[in-house]
């Protein structure tokens, strides 16, 4: 699988509706995971979207989620650029360059979903997410 570079959009509690709308517009396959699916069932906001991904037959990829609990929704923090794939060496290289001279919000390390993931803001103020897919099993 080739690596993906795509927008990642944050929403103020209406990610499900927005992502379903984009599916109507562009078609394709939509996967939605809630915060409850990630091990927080019954908690406030457990029905909100932790991660959504729309993949279209035209090759478009759009990811989105509701702002996590405790994070404020405000203009300027509603998007990031996401890079994901299986080529760990290449993706780690991107991470090192993007985070160098910037700031790291989430270190690149193994997450509860099993992949390596990190979030940083580059020296130009652009937020980035890097996800290195790990083999299942």
Summary keywords:
alpha+beta, 2,3-Dihydroxybiphenyl 1,2-Dioxygenase, domain 1, 8-stranded mixed sheet, 8 strands, 39% strand
CATH superfamily, please?
2,3-Dihydroxybiphenyl 1,2-Dioxygenase, domain 1
Radius of gyration: 15 Å
Report on the biggest sheet. 8 strands, mixed
SSE pattern, N- to C-terminal: EHEEEEHEEE
How many domains, in number, for the residues?
A: 1
Give the end-to-end Cα distance, rounded to a whole number of Å: 18 Å
Spatial strand arrangement across the major sheet = 2-3-4-1-5-8-7-6
Q: CATH fold name, please?
A: 2,3-Dihydroxybiphenyl 1,2-Dioxygenase, domain 1
Q: Please, could you describe this protein's structure?
A:
It is a single chain. The longest helix has 12 residues, at 15-26. The chain starts with a strand and ends in a 5-residue tail after the last strand. The protein is globular and about 35 Å long. The chain contains two helices and eight strands. It is of the alpha+beta class and 137 residues long. An eight-stranded mixed beta sheet has the order 2-3-4-1-5-8-7-6, with helices on one face. The protein has a single domain (4-132), classed as 2,3-Dihydroxybiphenyl 1,2-Dioxygenase, domain 1 (Roll). The model has no long low-confidence stretch (mean pLDDT 90).
């Amino acid at each position: 699988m080739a690596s993906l570079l795509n927008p990642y959009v944050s929403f103020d509690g209406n990610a499900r509706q927005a992502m379903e709308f984009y599916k109507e517009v562009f078609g394709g396959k939509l996967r939605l995971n809630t915060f409850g699916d990630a091990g927080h069932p019954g908690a406030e906001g457990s029905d909100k979207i932790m991660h959504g991904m729309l993949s279209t037959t035209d090759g478009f990829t759009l990811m989105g989620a509701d702002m996590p609990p405790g994070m404020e929704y405000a203009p300027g923090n509603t998007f990031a650029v996401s890079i994901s794939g299986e080529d760990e060496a290449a993706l780690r290289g991107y991470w090192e360059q993007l985070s160098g001279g910037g700031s790291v919000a989430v270190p690149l390390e193994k997450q509860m979903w099993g992949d390596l993931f990190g979030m940083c803001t580059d020296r130009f103020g652009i937020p980035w997410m890097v996800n290195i897919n790990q083999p299942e099993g």
